[in-house]
Amino acid sequence: MTPAGYQKVLADLNLHRKVLRPQNIIALEEARAHGDLSENAEYDAAKDRQSHLEGRIKDLESKVSRAQVIDITQMPASERVIFGTTVELEDDDTGEALTYRIVGMEEADVKRGCISYTSPIGRALLGRSVGDSVRFETPKGTRGLTINAVHYR
To answer: What are phi and psi of 33, to 5 degrees?
Structure first.
């Protein structure tokens, strides 16, 4: 993942550990204070939240421990598309100009121009160079793009 993506995962982990978990512990204590736990909806809801929080914390901890952070600015620039590069493209059918950054699954957000390296476009672009035309399958059929520029920023 990119350094920014790694920081985002760390911030999310921090939020869950230091804010959301303690808040839920307080909610559990308050619900327990109301008495009979067998008919206490607040207690059941807090226990469910605790289960979801702990699962999310384990998931985030796993991502942090397995993360391979790739800082594209430390790599020698070339015309080749690799993880972390920003790619300027042209749609072969419409002529529309597109710009995407190839990122990890955690960071993918098409609205911000960030696509996962595992997406159909990402897989088609990786390893290709400026001037190459790539074709890939989408739910709407085959699509073609031409690589106009690759930026290492």
So the answer is: -65, -15
CA distance 108 to 32: 41
79 neighbors 139 (Cβ within 8 angstroms):
no
Q: What is the DSSP string of 120-150?
A: HHHHHHTT-BTT-EEEEEETTEEEEEEEEEE
Say how far apart CA 27 and CA 19 lie, in whole Å.
13
Instruction: Give the closest residue to 66 by CA, choosing from 4, 3, 126, 6.
Output: 6
The set of residues, in sequence order, having a beta carbon less than 8 Å from that of 45 and lying 6+ positions away, is 31
* Per-residue confidence in pLDDT tens, the chain, 153 aa: 888 889 999 999 999 999 999 999 998 888 888 777 677 788 888 899 999 999 999 999 999 999 989 888 888 888 999 999 999 999 998 999 999 999 998 889 999 999 999 999 999 999 999 999 999 998 888 999 999 999 998
pTM of the model: 0.73
Tell me the C-alpha distance between 28 and 22, whole Å. 10
Instruction: Name all domains of the chain by residue range, CATH numbers in brackets.
Output: 3-66 (1.10.287.180), 73-151 (3.10.50.30)
